[in-house]
Amino acid sequence: MLKLGLLGKNISYSFSRNYFKNKFEKENISGVSYENFDIEHISSFPEIINNTEGIKGLNVTIPYKEDVIPYLDKLNKKAKEIGAVNTIKLTKKGKLVGYNTDCYGFINSLKPLLKKHHKKALILGTGGASKAILYALKNKGIKYHYVSRTTSKKVKYTYEDLTEKIISKYQIIVNCTPLGTYPNIEDHPDIPYDGITKKHILFDLVYNPEETEFLRLGKLKGAKTMNGLKMLKLQAEKAWSIWNLNK
User: Residue 65 catalytic?
Assistant: First the structure.
């Protein structure tokens, strides 16, 4: 039995395990399983690789998309540039190769919503997922700035800095924080929602609940909204093609 899985922390809620289980059933894919590897610290990662018979690949989620990199033998070009990994392939020679399929999932789910005036974006949060968003926006020629709780070289705005005027100038806003994830569904990024208009796109990487408070508040202002579910499905299929277990 070949094994795939998801590496993360507190991931019982995870999308990936159910997605691949359903995929295997629908497409009559046999001889392969997908399970969660829920670890307290990244230092347990080598144990998973060494002690899991038949392991061929992993998805990686919060909080290990950056922390896992030192444990890998190689990064593909895109993952290296992004600086975060969400897919790992174990080669026939036993090498661990890191990839990033988040950027593919994000830009291909965002594309149908994009109009000519969508030229500037705010990225809320600076974690591993945000790096893939930055890469995708940059490749699309969309200017971007980070928003975080504290300033740094890469962070232009703190949440306290944001005004309605600033929000109105950035017509794509992407939430890369876990705020609003079930069960804390009342939580949301603290931004001036009154600056949002019908020209805005609000994209939330959170997918549970289907409509987060961030998206609900944006929709009230007429913005186009999208959660992270389509992105997750696209990145999962891209990961499957990377693993391509027949190779």
Answer: yes
